[in-house]
Amino acid sequence: MTRPIAVLFLCTHNSARSILAEAILNALGAPQFVAYSAGSSPRESGQPNPLALRVLSEQGITTSTLRSKSWEDFLGPNAPHLDLVVTVCGNASEVCPLFPGTPPKIHWGYDDPSAGDAPDDVKLDAFRHTFRMIRRRIHALVTLPAESLTEKTLQQSALNLADI
């Protein structure tokens, strides 16, 4: 592809896993990739989970542009072109809308690091673990050979990474 490969990461609240994935891909994959994230029920405040932002900052990844967004932002005529949609919720129970151009959709499931009533230090460890798992898959994606990243092969190439 002559333009960056555009990937949208989806999760219900767009505050933790999808935010982590967006930031990691933008940090590791530029300029070959551009990442976005969104959710079906984004946080009303628009603010990502503070623990997600903390883990990203610890890794030297910028967080200043991150915000919780609705997937409706990616449905209109002014929405960016998408090459791949990746759901990152632990269970792919939501039915995602059809995005313009009908990009292929795959699932990389992660448990919610913010779930439960554990103290913040325990949740912070869960966020760090989730960060490492997402980064491992994204690193594998951005280091795939160019022939694995064509419109015809992108979905299968990314789907193969679900086992990593």
What is the chain-wise order of helices and strands?
EHEHEEHH
Q: How much beta, percentage-wise?
A: 5-15%
Largest sheet: 4 strands, parallel
Give the fraction of residues assigned to helices: 25-40%
CATH superfamily: Response regulator
How many structural units, i.e. domains? 1
- Per DSSP E runs of 2 or more residues, the count of β-strands stands at 4
Instruction: Report the total helices.
Output: 4
Low-confidence stretches: none
Mean pLDDT: 93
CATH topology: Rossmann fold
Using only C-alpha atoms, the radius of gyration works out to 15 Å
Derived from helix and strand composition plus strand pairing, the structural class reads: alpha/beta
CATH architecture: 3-Layer(aba) Sandwich
Question: What is the CATH class?
Answer: Alpha Beta
